[in-house]
Design a protein that fits this description.
This is N-(5'-phosphoribosyl)anthranilate isomerase. Pathway: Amino-acid biosynthesis; L-tryptophan biosynthesis; L-tryptophan from chorismate: step 3/5. Belongs to the TrpF family. This protein is of the alpha/beta class. The protein contains eight helices and ten strands. It has one domain: Aldolase class I (TIM Barrel, Alpha-Beta Barrel), CATH 3.20.20. Helix 2 links the parallel strand 2 and strand 3. The protein starts with 5 loop residues before the first strand and ends with a helix.
């Protein structure tokens, strides 16, 4: 029996891209509520995107060091299934919204991975991304995937610089059960390319 690699396409800014991703078989899409991102969306725009999704495709709302009041306000307007925190939030903050959450962990070395589950015991899953001193994800950079080999402390997602060309190697080297891509399937920032999305999902499924 083959193992299905779960997939999320993040940084969706258009309903038609969400619909195309879903038609190709993606498990989840990500909506970025971070003003400094080239892929940022507002609540009204995000609600339209979620409305384009078919049943059983999840929507993740992504925040970076946001005020709790703003997070709650956006969640009232956008029916997100899960929250994804990409900043310096702690576990108490992340779980205070009463919804499942993913916590991004920016990997500089093995210690970041080893301590992650203890730092975020209530996370539904951890998302391991490349470390960048100024940016919180979406950098197109990757890290040493072999650091994750054998990691079983918590369910986890691999992110950081994934593309249709390297995702199969990334899954093989890390042992990932789920992958997250943004810039690697775009024709421009925030504009997803259907052919690249299809190639990415095909490559991930073929491992």
């Amino acid at each position: 029996m083959t193992h299905k690699i779960r997939s999320k396409i993040c940084g969706i800014t258009r309903p038609e891209d969400a619909a195309a991703a879903a038609a190709l078989g993606v498990d989840a899409i990500g909506l970025v509520f971070y003003g400094q991102s080239k892929r940022a969306v507002g609540p009204a725009q995000a609600a339209q995107i979620v409305a384009a999704l078919p049943p059983f495709v999840s929507a993740a709302a992504l925040f970076v060091n946001e005020r709790a009041e703003t997070v709650r306000d956006i969640l009232r307007q956008v029916p997100a299934d899960i929250i994804q925190f990409h900043g310096d939030e702690d576990d108490a903050f992340c779980r205070s919204f009463g919804r499942p959450y993913l916590k991004a962990v920016r990997v500089r070395g093995e210690a970041d991975i080893r301590t992650a589950s203890a730092r975020f015991p209530n996370a539904r899953a951890l998302l391991f991304d490349a470390y960048h001193p100024q940016a919180y994800g979406g950098t197109g950079q990757s890290f040493d995937w072999t650091l994750l080999r054998g990691y079983t402390d918590k369910p986890w997602v691999l992110a950081g610089g994934l593309t249709p060309d390297n995702v199969a190697a990334a899954v093989r080297e890390s042992g990932a059960a789920a992958v997250d891509v943004s810039g690697g399937v775009e024709s421009a920032a925030g504009v997803k390319d259907a052919a690249k999305m299809a190639a990415f999902l095909r490559a991930a499924a073929a491992v």
